[in-house]
Amino acid sequence: MIRGVHHVAIxxxxxxxxxxxxxxxxxxxxxxxxxxxxxxxxVDSVLGxxxxxxxxxxxRLGNLCIEMFEFSSPEPAPMDPKRPxxxxxxxxxxxxxxxxxxxxxxxxxxxIEFHVPPQDFGSVKATYGRDPDGNVFELQELxxxxxxxxxxxxxx
Length: 156
Hints:
By secondary structure, the chain is α+β, with helices and mostly antiparallel strands. Helix content is 19%, strand content 35%.
């Protein structure tokens, strides 16, 4: 039985830079860090790679974990940091917030880019930003406590 989502994973060219965003600005805590050398057959078989090596960090905030990899082998292809969200594949992850204007202002002050300031859609305010690698994230403040989207939000 599938119980739910445990984590999303991001490959980055610079682990420390991305940790600075997710840990220091967003508030995730590091729960595990490791790395593996080339020739670790079990990892290679799971990943579908040959002679992989990488640093790995798992972060947690509330009910979401983010797993980050910084591969040194094989040579990763760079991602377009301005990749449109309409392209196939991962589009974004969403963070539930209680004061979107405050969170947005704090991240902008730290140099994080957003497509637009928070927009009011009636029962929700939202905006998309980009982490230091160009991965898109959403800030969302649910305003209507009866909105069906509240089902996915941690209470407390």
